[in-house]
From TrEMBL:
Any Pfam family: CorA
Topology in membrane: Multi-pass membrane protein
GO molecular function: cobalt ion binding; cobalt ion transmembrane transporter activity; magnesium ion binding; magnesium ion transmembrane transporter activity
Name of the protein in its database record: Magnesium transporter CorA
SUPFAM superfamilies: CorA soluble domain-like (SSF143865), Magnesium transport protein CorA, transmembrane region (SSF144083)
InterPro entries in the record: CorA_cytoplasmic_dom, CorA_TM1_TM2, MgTranspt_CorA/ZnTranspt_ZntB
Function, in words: Mediates influx of magnesium ions. Alternates between open and closed states. Activated by low cytoplasmic Mg(2+) levels. Inactive when cytoplasmic Mg(2+) levels are high.
Organism field: Exobacillus caeni
UniProt keyword terms in alphabetical order: Cell membrane, Ion transport, Magnesium, Membrane, Transmembrane, Transmembrane helix, Transport
Family listed: Belongs to the CorA metal ion transporter (MIT) (TC 1.A.35) family.
Places the protein is found: Cell membrane
Segments traversing the membrane: 239-258, 270-290
Primary subcellular site in the record, as a coarse category: membrane
Gene Ontology CC: plasma membrane
Length: 310
């Protein structure tokens, strides 16, 4: 457990839930025991506000500080009064983009715990923006893969990134919820502060990136599905035309394979040639009829080198 004393407020930073119970005598506040009971359940806490707008206002809730913690369900718990901040499980060593020492120095310039916590949220949001950037690069690479290898089905990769963005949405939503809960609890104390404006802008940036990436993935999914469907239709069309064209051959082969006692065509001098001419002629007539109807489509038509339907 670390305790940081600032000019007008203090921060208790616990590593584990068990430490809170051991050190509860240090936290002699009216609403802390109720919060400790909820923390001990080790589940996510819905943001809660008591006495909004008053001097003794209280806000508590939970969040995840990085994507890996969201995957492992590692929860960070927070409790905030005007002059007190308590956190449990806020391990900044897992977030490479956050320098805890520098952040604490900056928090010396804040005069209340809510403003100090806004600084923390701002740093977490900044780390989210940095961590989310590679996802955008991967989506661009996937676009290139689809354009270069149009015969493969990329749906698994698309949905993998789609689910990843959903988790980023959840992380961002939890911070937005805490932001609004802080507004509700401390009202005019934080609305016009620089820290609050910073996190508003960073939340907007995260929302914008998420929406753009989701839109790109939806477009890639539709493009992938369209290409797969088109290729499937072309294959079925080709097989259908092929089946129709070999029908005369199949019919004649079936006749030749019969073992009737009387088969006069066996004695024909030009029977073999006649059979070949019949097959070619009937196949040609069938193909001409299909082509006239427009049912052969692009089967025999060459495609351009960079065609998306190649």
């Amino acid at each position: 457990m670390m305790r940081y004393n600032f000019t007008h407020w203090e921060w208790y930073d616990f590593d584990h839930v068990d430490q809170v119970e051991q050190e509860k005598n240090l936290l002699m506040r009216e609403n802390v025991p109720e919060w400790i009971k909820k923390v001990q359940n080790q589940r996510e806490i819905v943001s809660h506000v008591d006495f909004p707008g008053q001097r003794n206002a209280v806000m508590y809730g939970s969040l995840h500080i990085n994507y890996a913690d969201k995957e492992k369900n590692n929860i960070v718990y927070v409790y905030i009064e005007n002059n007190l901040l308590i956190t449990v499980g806020m391990d900044f060593s897992k977030v490479k983009t956050i320098d805890k020492k520098s952040m604490i120095k900056e928090m010396d310039f804040t005069d209340t715990a809510p403003k100090g916590f806004l600084r923390i949220i701002g740093e977490i949001l900044n780390s989210f923006l940095i961590e989310l950037h590679p996802t955008g690069e991967h989506i661009k690479l996937m676009h290139e893969k689809i354009s270069q290898n149009k015969r493969a089905n990329h749906l698994d990769q698309i949905y993998k990134f789609r689910f990843k963005l959903l988790k980023w949405d959840d992380l961002n939503a939890a911070l937005k919820d805490l932001q609004i809960a802080l507004q509700e609890a401390f009202l005019d104390q934080i609305d016009d502060t620089q820290e609050f404006k910073y996190i508003q802008k960073r939340i907007q940036r995260l929302d914008l990136l998420n929406k753009n990436y989701e839109k790109d993935l939806d477009t890639l999914r539709d493009l992938n599905n369209g290409l797969v469907s088109y290729r499937g239709n072309e294959i079925m069309k080709t097989l259908t035309v092929f089946t129709v064209l070999i029908t005369p051959i199949s019919a004649l082969g079936a006749l030749w394979g019969m073992n009737f006692k009387y088969m006069p065509e066996l004695d024909w001098k030009w029977g073999y040639l006649f059979a070949l001419i019949t097959i070619v002629t009937s196949s040609g007539i069938i193909f001409g009829w299909l082509h006239k109807k427009g049912w052969t489509g692009n089967i025999l038509r060459g495609r351009k080198k960079n065609s998306y339907t190649k």
